[in-house]
Amino acid sequence: MRIAALISRILLGFIYLVFGLDYFLHFIPYQPLHTGNAGAFIAGLKGTGYFYPMLKVIQIVGGACLMANLYAPFWAVVVFPISLNVLLFHTVLVPSGWLMGVTLIVPNLLLGYAYRKYYNGMFTMKAFV
C-alpha cells in the first residue's frame, strides 16, 4: 500500500502541478477548444475573472505539496473536488476525454484510503466546541 500511495501522490501532484502551471506559462502547445455545453461551461468559469486563476493556483500549490509530501492528506482532500469535476466534465460533456478524469480520480481515491486514519476527525457526526 505504501508504494501505491507514493505513486498515486507523485502522479496526482505532477498532473496538477503541470496543468496548473500551463494555465499561466502556456508551455503545452495544443489544447483543443471545447464547443457546445463544454465550451459554455469553460467560458462561464473563465468569464467570472477570478475562478479559473484561483483554481489553477490551488492546483499548483496542491500539486507541489503532494509531490513534496507536505500536508499531503490535507491537499488530497482539497484537490478531490477538482478531480471529481474533471471526471464528470470528461465523462458527461466531453466523453472522449474520460481517461483524464479516471487518471485523476483513481489516485485521489487511493490516497483517501491510504490517509484514512488522518480523516477521523472529519467524520464526527456531532461536533461540540
How many structural domains can be distinguished in the coordinates?
Answer: 1
N-C termini distance: 35 Å
Query: What sort of overall outline do the alpha carbons produce when their principal axes are compared?
Result: globular
Task: Give the helix level as a range of percent.
Answer: over 70%
Q: Classify the secondary structure makeup into a structural class.
A: mainly alpha
Total helical segments:
5
Give the strand content. Answer: under 5%
The total of beta strands comes to 0
Which stretches are low in confidence, meaning pLDDT under 50 for 5 or more residues running?
A: none
Largest sheet: none
Report mean pLDDT, rounded to a whole number: 95
Radius of gyration: 16 Å
Would you list the SSEs in sequence order as H and E? HHHHH
